[in-house]
Amino acid sequence: MDRILDIDLDFFLNKVSDSREDGKRLDNNKYYPWRLDALRSFLENRCNLRKKAPIRGRVVKNHHQAFFFWREVIQTNRIKIPFELVHIDAHSDIGVADWGWIYLTSELLHKPLEERMNPDKSLLFGINEANYLAFALACRWIKKLTFITHPTWENDLIEVYFKDFDITSGFIQLKKFNKEELLEKGFEKEVKPLGFEPEIPVEFIPLLEYKSSQPFTLLTLSHSKTFTPKSSDRLIKVVKDYIKKI
After folding, report:
1. pLDDT per residue over 117-160, tens digit each?
2. Domain assignment of residue 101, yes or no
3. By the 8 A CB rule, do 171 and 162 touch?
4. Which domain covers residue 218, as residue numbers?
5. What is the pLDDT of residues 77-111, one digit of tens each?
6. How far apart are CA 83 and CA 67, in angstroms?
7. Which of 117, 142, 136 is nearest to 201 (CA)?
8. Contact present, 46 and 52 (Cβ < 8 Å)
């Protein structure tokens, strides 16, 4: 099974931050990046990467662009589905504070799999950098999902995406809902699902406990400028040393 390492630059900061609403970079005096040698040590000793054997991958500006990159390599048979995904990010990226979950559960999941690969891109309901992983899950691309959590991470998970509405269940289980009923009752467990997607094992591993013994097939790195200070940009070159761009 192929394994994808999905990294966001905002993970390598002293603390977690939300995106700036004005679109500017974070304050260098409040948010500061890892040392270059610390990042390199993490990539080699924790993620099992090697400069002498770079893996295929790509750097994207915003994290939801990773979804479209994965779609590209799937459609060109450069990676097989389903794959294992390891997500190293300051955020879960399965959706928070947006209406994307309503579109996903009441419209997208009702479509055939091949049509789910072309999701809505509208600002209110569509795919974005905070929910793109849920869309990848909806496409059934992911066999197993592992979140590597930042030491200052705060729970940003949506219960509706988990088995029995329980984020500690150990499984993602997307549900299909009736749109009218969902809009009427909102984020309530009493809304009866019309159907269930296959269960997907999910694991949360704290940064200091993570160590991969298996190699990765593909690597994506998101620059995520509005989630990072300009001083973080120097870390990109370090990660690029382990990527064979495709």
Report:
1. 999 998 788 999 999 999 999 999 999 999 999 999 999 999 99
2. no
3. yes
4. 3-95+122-157+203-245
5. 999 999 999 999 999 999 876 789 999 999 999 99
6. 13
7. 142
8. no
Number of Cβ within a 10 Å radius of residue 22: 7
Cβ neighbors of 154 (< 8 A, separation 6 or more) are: 16
Q: Decide the pairing of beta strands 55-60 and 218-222.
A: parallel
Question: Considering its fold, how many domains does the chain have in total?
Answer: 1
Residues of the chain by 3-state class (helix, strand, coil), percent to 5:
30, 20, 50
In single-letter form, the type of residue at position 91 comes to H
- How far is it, in rounded angstroms, from Cα 226 to Cα 23? 6
Place of tokens 């289980």: 173
* Whole-number pLDDT of residue 91: 95
Amino acid in the structure at residue 198: P
Phi, psi of 149 (to 5 degrees): -95, 140
Does the pLDDT of residue 188 top 70, yes or no? no
Residue 90 lies in a domain: yes
DSSP letter at 210 equals -
- Number of neighbouring beta carbons within 10 Å of residue 167: 17
Closest CA to 95 of 69, 65, 118, 128: 128
Residue 28 resides in a domain: yes
Looking at the domain assignment, is residue 77 inside a domain? yes
Number of residues that make up the chain: 246
Contact criterion met (CB below 8 Å) for 63 and 224: yes
**Phi/psi zone of residue 164: left (φ > 0), alpha (ψ -120 to 50 degrees), beta?**
left
